[in-house]
Amino acid sequence: MAQFGFENDIQSILKLDMPILNAPMARWQRKASSSNTSSLNGLSPGKPTNVSLSSSKTPSKTPGKSKKTPSKIGGDRFIPTRNSKQMDVANFLLTKENEPLDANTAGSTLESQKAWSVSLNGYNIEDAKILHFGGKPLNAPEGYQNNLKVLYSQGSTPASTKKTRYISSTPDRILDAPDLRNDFYLNLLDWGSHNILAVALHNSVYLWDATKGDIILLMRMEREEDYICSLSWTKDGSYLAVGTSDCKVQLWDVENQKRLRSMSSHTARVGSLSWNDHILSSGSRSGHIHHHDVRVADHHIFTLTTHTQEVCGLQWSPDGRYLASGGNDNLVCVWPRVHEGSAGNDTQFVNCWSEHQGAVKALAWCPWQSNILASGGGTSDRHIRIWNVNSGSCISSLDTQSQVSSLVFAPNYKELVSAHGYAHNNVVIWKYPSFSKVAELNGHEDRVLSVILSPDGSTIASVAGDETIRLWKSFELDPVKKKAKEKLTKSTSSGMHQSIR
């Protein structure tokens, strides 16, 4: 019997649905009873109580110290005091501050908000802000989930990205150019300092006065089979050099419409010309470059013989120190200035680069950096390359995906203009030196053969195989810059006048 009684006691203990009367008090019960006893003085231990954790306060004094912690208005900077009233105010500010205010009630609303803040918090909440937005944030779009992403991702637009300049995609004027030779290697367009545009149409040279709109036939070759290969104005715009297919270089007085002289020295057509004061440089299909001193009877004073094929690009630097030449042999050469009294042949170039994989006709010197030269390659190359003449290195290179036929720097906005043949047949404006594309000027129906800049730098003229010349006003200065430039020019001229007096 005793055995059965022991088993019954074991089974009764193992039953989970019966309370354990003699078990020790649980840990959470001991902790709760001790905290209730210590914190709730005056209440009977057996009376049930509901104590909220948010009602407990941090002791106002640090144990062992008699000094109080200094307090700032609005609570501690890193551990702010947030009670229910402050959360209500914060919720109100988040939901209501983006709503538009009526102009008539805006002042009274701000005063009422200040009064509510003082009455609820004991201080003005504007005075307790650590961070404050200078401008009003934008509202999130309707249905947007994360308003804070819109609120904190807003940034002010940099001044450099503000676009006040408009570049028209259509030409300002289109001129007909019938019988224009569609030859990549020729230079048939030039714009003089007197605002006169010269163009070669087969065996004739025409002048178009951009100021008055008058058209003048300057000259026509005697034989019908001969043709004009190149044109180049002097710096003062009074004389025009004309290279022809019969190996001659003619010099014309434009004002009197009179030929001053005809200079013979080449053995092939003269496809490129460039002036440096009284020195006229001419490039021929034979690969030779001749320097002519137009002041003397024996005009041929120098010959450069590095190129093995036609010299189709020729440009003197603005300061007159270097001559850049480009040829159908894919070479770009830089030559030193011809010294007074020197004569003969010279092959000592300053630099000669062979990185291009196509004919180099496009050459342009940077007007504001005299040691920078830009060159462009033909269909097999399609690259624009920027060279530092002093170091002899290639600074940058850009693949334009199109034949580069001409280059010119636009100083008004410090940009580079490139003319293209196959496959785009357009004109592109690039920001220099970043080579970010500013604009594309489309409209020509055939390859663009050449581009030239107007004397004031505001307009470029492009001539193409579609027998048209298009004028693009892409670089006009805004009125503020134009007025400042005119003021500077006026002050400089007046200073020179005073010095002369």
TrEMBL record:
Annotated Low complexity bias: 33-44, 54-63
Keyword Repeat in annotation: yes
GO biological process: anaphase-promoting complex-dependent catabolic process; positive regulation of anaphase-promoting complex-dependent catabolic process
Protein family according to the UniProt entry: Belongs to the WD repeat CDC20/Fizzy family.
Swiss-Prot/TrEMBL WD repeat ranges: 221-262, 304-335, 378-397, 441-473
GO molecular function terms attached to this record: anaphase-promoting complex binding; ubiquitin ligase activator activity
Residue segments, region Disordered: 28-80
Record's protein name: Cell division cycle 20 homolog
Keyword annotations: Repeat, WD repeat
The keyword Repeat is assigned to this record: yes
Short name of any one Pfam family annotated for the protein: WD40_CDC20-Fz
Domain CDC20/Fizzy WD40 positions: 175-472
Gene Ontology CC entries for this record: anaphase-promoting complex
